[in-house]
């Protein structure tokens, strides 16, 4: 009898995609492509781009030559099977990135430089997350922050529901202590 092959748990493997909705400037697209390449994204999709030109001085790696860049009509229709959609938007009710545990297979959707994604996207996403800042960030900076956060949390092993629950509980406790005046606010 032949030995049984070793089963490899492929569920821990994953991929990441970046979706842009109506990006305004080619230099921001170029910077996003550079970020995607730096953080090993599997693909970039662009819906409703106001420019078709993805070439930019900021895209020094010519990323479109090494990872697919898709121009699509609907970011939700153009994603690999089993991919969770994570909307990144500075809106009320969204989850703080600091406590967010990234799904193994995800596409992160980012709105335009001069607007928001709106309910058409947030209502269809599995997760809505914000970067905790005082105001909105540059599109490429947001992509870099989110992809770096994902990479860091993967490196630290923060990929399971238990870690996510513990992180949320700690954040809620800190918030409660601040409200009660038992803990100084960060500043």
What does this structure look like?
With 187 residues, the chain is α/β, with parallel strands linked by helices. It contains 4 helices and 7 strands, in the order E-H-E-E-E-E-E-H-E-H-H. It has a 7-stranded parallel sheet, covered by helices on one side. The chain starts with 14 loop residues before the first strand and ends in a 7-residue tail after the last helix. The model has no long low-confidence stretch (mean pLDDT 83).
Q: What is the structure about, briefly put?
A:
This protein has helices at 26-38, 119-122, 139-156, 161-180; strands spanning 15-21, 43-47, 69-72, 84-88, 95-96, 105-110, 127-130. With 187 residues, the protein is α/β, with parallel strands linked by helices. 28% of the residues are buried.
């Amino acid at each position: 009898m032949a030995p049984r092959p070793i089963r490899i748990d492929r569920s821990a493997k994953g991929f990441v995609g970046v979706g842009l909705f109506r990006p305004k400037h080619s230099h921001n697209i170029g910077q996003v492509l550079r970020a995607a390449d730096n953080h090993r994204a599997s693909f970039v999709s662009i819906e409703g781009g106001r420019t078709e030109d993805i070439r930019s001085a900021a895209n020094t790696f010519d990323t479109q030559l090494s990872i697919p860049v898709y121009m699509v009509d609907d970011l939700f229709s153009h994603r690999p099977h089993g991919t969770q959609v994570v909307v990144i938007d500075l809106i009320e009710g969204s989850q703080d990135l600091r406590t967010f545990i990234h799904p193994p297979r995800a596409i992160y959707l980012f709105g335009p430089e001069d607007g928001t994604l709106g309910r058409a996207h947030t209502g269809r996403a599995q997760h809505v997350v914000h970067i905790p800042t005082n105001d909105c960030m540059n599109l490429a900076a947001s992509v870099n922050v989110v992809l770096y956060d994902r990479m860091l949390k993967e490196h630290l092993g923060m990929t399971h529901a238990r870690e996510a629950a513990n992180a949320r509980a700690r954040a809620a406790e800190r918030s409660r202590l601040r409200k009660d005046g038992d803990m100084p606010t960060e500043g």
